[in-house]
Amino acid sequence: MKLNDLNYFCYLCKVGSFTEAAKHFNVKQPTVTLAIKRLENSLQTQLVSRDHSQNFLQVTSSGKILYEHAIKILNEVHLATVEINNFSQEKIRFGLPPIIGNLYLPLVVPELSENNLLQSLVVDESGSEQLTQDLLSGKIDIALLGSYAPFNDSRLVATQITWRDFAIISSNKHWLKDYEKVSFSDLKDEKFITLDSKFIHRQVLEHYSNEAGFTPNIIFKTQSISILKRMVEQNSGIALLVGDAVALGDQLKCTPLTDVFAEKFNISIVTRKNYLLKEREWELVTQLLKIKDKVHNS
Q: Which of 166, 162, 131 is CA-nearest to residue 272?
């Protein structure tokens, strides 16, 4: 069974046209037709059926089974190629969300510097949702990610470092300035400013709102923590963030929630399943694990 044949087959299933598949791979149509025939002969089953009169193609039940496995095979081959090409390099392709990068990574920067790890990092900065996809696609190999629940993806291996509570961030001019704690249900009439779907915060906001029985009035979404905080400072709305996000220089009030929600800001070191960590990556993991003690001692 040839990888090229599987490539042709998977794309054919996707577009439903031999002509389009041939154009995509810049080959003649008979090349794709022969590839499918080789697969069918090898497996002794029909994978696709064609209605020439209506130019209609249908994937058979056997074809659907092969498609599901072939997609996984081709993805594994892609990841193997990427990992082999990068294994001899000293660089560490590292995913780092902005909040974790601003709040928690600095706690171990002295150790990273002492072990000459900082200069080895090639950092991909985005929200945890996006970085998870980057890990799975092979764009990065290791990441320090946030999640609202412990990772439960068979394609990934996650080591949880610690978790932090979410809180409500508001302006010092907002009525919350006079409250030590607040129930999320008391916020049903508030305007919310939130991070976009690349971050877990948007999903957490929806979870909390569902539990409280209302739909949040989201007036603005952004990828920038700084923009979010500045808008909240101006009393344009409130935000749901990990409580540690409020720094001493911010003109913001951080109000803990009285509700006991299952969703927390979990911080984990995440890699692909079966990924072989390089020596320098093991050193990085060792230093990142120290974040737990640093957070609890700060």
A: 131
CA nearest neighbour of 105 among 293, 296, 291, 292: 291
pLDDT averaged over the chain?
A: 90
Residues 6 or more apart whose Cβ sits within 8 Å of residue 169: 229, 232, 238, 239, 240, 241, 245, 246, 252, 253, 254, 255
List beta partners, residue 121. Answer: 92
Predicted TM-score (pTM) of the model is: 0.70
Angle 232-236-239 from CA coordinates, rounded to 5°:
45
Residue-wise pLDDT tens digits, 14-49 = 888 888 899 999 999 899 999 999 999 999 999 998
* d(C-alpha 159, C-alpha 130), whole Å: 19
* 283 SS3 class: helix
One-letter identity of residue 170: S
Q: Which residues contact 200 (CB under 8 A, 6 or more apart)?
A: 127, 128, 129, 146, 147, 148, 265
Query: Residue 183's closest CA among 206, 212, 207, 160?
Result: 212
For the chain, the residue count is: 298
Instruction: Enumerate the β-bridge partners of residue 251.
Output: none
- DSSP labels, 100-160: HHHHTGGGGHHHHHHTT-GGGEEEE---HHHHHHHHHHTS-SEEEEEESS----TTEEEEE
Count of CB atoms situated within 10 Å of the CB of 260:
5
Q: Please, is 97 exposed, middle or buried when counting C-beta atoms within 10 Å of its C-beta (0-12, 13-18, 19+)? A: buried
Sign of the CA dihedral with 194 first, then 196, 199, and 204 last: positive
How big is the CA angle at 221 (ends 215 and 225), to the nearest 5 degrees? 120
Strand partners, 142: 94, 271
